[in-house]
Amino acid sequence: MLFIDSTPMTSTPKNSSQPRLKVVPPAVPEPAKPQEKPVQAPIEQTPKKSTFPRQWIAWGVIILGLGGIGMIPVNHSISGKTIITPTVGERQSVTMPETGTLTLHVRSNQTVKPGDILATVSSSSLEDKKAAAQQKIGEAKTAVNSAQQQLILAQTRLEVAKSLESIALEQRNSKRQELNQAQFSSGAARMRALEREQAGIESEIKGIENQILGLENERAGLENEIIGIENNIEGLNEQLEIVESALEKRQGLVTEGLIGSASPELMSLEVQASELKTQIKREENSIETYQQKINQKQNQILQTQQLINQRRQQIGVKSEGVNEIIESLEQQLEEAENFVEQKTIERISAQREVDASLAEIADKQYLLSQQSAEFNRLEQQQQQLAIQATVSGTITTTDLDLLNNQTLEAGREILNVVNLSSLTGLVEIQQEEIDLIHQSLPVTFKPRQATVDQYQAKIEDIQPVIKSDESGQNSVLQIRITIDNDDRQLQPGLEGVAHIKTPQLRVYQKVSREFFKLFPWWKL
Question: Mean pLDDT in the chain?
Fold first, then answer.
C-alpha cells in the first residue's frame, strides 16, 4: 500500500513553495532506531556588511553639525564691576578759603547753577589786616605828599640858586671888564668906569634883593611844611586814639580772661600804638628842625640886607685916585668871584636836594603801590569769602546744618556740588577681553538695586595701564564710561555692573574664550 506523507520537511529549503511527494514502501517492522534529527537544508545567508563606513559617516555628520553650530553668530557682551564717580569738570569741592565763621546759603540735595552763592565766611583776622593795610596806605600817601612838597621847595631853591649864579657871573664879568678898562684907559675912561661900577653895584643890589626874595620864599615853604607836619601829627593822633581804644578793649578782655595776654591781636595793637607814638615824636622833632631852618633863613635875610646897605654906601664913596679905583675894582672882582663860587655851590646843593626829593618820591610811591596792592589782594581775598558755585549740579553733602555758623579752619572741606545728570563709571574688565573693546561700543549700566532700571552710557576713555583686581589674582583693565542719569537716581559711590555690547561672535569663538578663561593656557 502506498502512503503519501504530506508533512513538510524541515530540511526543505526556504525557497521551496510546496512539499515534496515520495513513494513509501509497505511498512516492515524494523528495530527501533534512535530518532535522528532532521537535517536542515543549508540556508542562504546574506554576507554581513561592515559597520566601519557608517560610523565615520555618523561622526562626519556630527562634526559637520557641530561646525555649523560653531559658525552661528551670537550676541556677545562684556560685563564688569562698576563704581560711579562724579564726572571731571562737572563737580566742585568747596573748602574754607580762610579761617572764620561759616554761613551757609544752601541745603543738602539742593540744585544750584554757576554764580549762586553757596556760603560766606566772616574772618576777623582779615578785617584786622585790611584795617592795618588801610592805615599804612594813609601813612604812605602822607609821606608822598610831604615828599612832593619837599620837591617843590627844592625846585624853588634850585631856580633861585640858578638865577643868583647867573647874576653873579654877569657881575664878575662886568668887574673884570671894568678892571681891564681902568688899567689901560685914560682918566676920563676911568671915571666912566667908576660910573659903570656904580651901575654894577645897583645891579648887584637888585641881585641881592632877588636873593632876599628867594630866602623869603624858602622861609614860606618851610612854614608851609610845618603846617603839613602839624596836619600829619593831627592825623597820627587820631589813629593813635583809635588804636588805644581798641587796645583798651582788648586789655579789658584780658582782664576778664576772655583772651590771653599773649594774644596776637593785643600784641599787634601794642606795636601799632608804639609805632604811632614814635612817629608823632619824630614829626614833632621835624617841626623843631624846620623852625631852626626858618631862623637860619631869617638871619641870612638880615645879613643880605646888610650887604645891600654896604653896596649902597659904596655908591656914595668917591674915589680919590686912579690907584684907589684900580684897587677897589680888584677887590670888587675878587668879591664877585667869591660870590660866584658861593652861588655855584648853592646851585649844586639845590640840585642835589631836587635829585634826593625825586628819589624819595619814587621810594614813597613804590611803597604806596605795594601797600595798595596788598590792600587790593585783601579785598579780593574778602570777595572770595563769598563762595560761588562754578558748576551746575546738586549739593551731595549731608548734615550741612551742623556746619552752619561754626568757626572752621582754612582748607576744611565744606560741601560738594555734583552734576548728577552725567556721571562717570569706572568699569573693570578682564584682560582677556581687551581685543574686543573700543570707544564706539554701546554700554548699558545696571545698578546693584532691587529694580530693573538700566541706564545708557558710552565709553569715554580706555586706561592704558593693566592693574590687578581687589583679589590680586586677576589682571583687569579700567574703562571710564559716561552714564546718562536723567532721572538723577544714581549717586556717586553707587556700585553696579556695566554691560559693553561687542560685535557678534561665532559660537566656537565664544566657547573658546570661556574655555581659556577657565583654563588659561599661559599659566600651564
Answer: 77
